[in-house]
Amino acid sequence: MSTVELRVGTGKGEIATLAQAHDAISRLRPSLSASAAEWEAFHRLAARVYAEVSEVDRGHHHEARGYWAIRERRYADYIAETGVVPTSSLDLPGW
């Protein structure tokens, strides 16, 4: 995955809501044949965006930070530890 900058905030062109974050992140999703490194980078980016948007979209603070950011970080950590790209959160230990 090439270097991508997603800006979170309230300015023009910035991601300000959880819905906008979902949309922006989904457009960056790697192909199913992408390497584990690409998938790990994608999930780390997604975790960062969700954590940041939780501070801007206060109505979705707990969902963005407490669910989405943690979920994406767990995917990234799993890939980093195992080199395996899970096909479902059911593949992650403890879920």
Describe this structure in words.
The protein is mainly α. The protein is 57% helix and 0% strand. The chain has 3 helices and no strands. The mean pLDDT is 89.
Number of helices: 3
Tell me the total number of β-strands: 0
Rg measurement, Å:
13 Å
Task: Quote the beta fraction.
Answer: under 5%
Low-confidence segments, given as residue ranges, are none
Order of helices and strands: HHH
Largest sheet: none
Give the topology.
Elements: H1 18-28, H2 36-56, H3 61-82
What is shown here, in short?
With 95 residues, the chain is mostly helical. It contains three helices and no strands. The chain is 57% helix and 0% strand.
What labels would you give this structure?
single chain; 95 residues; mainly alpha; globular
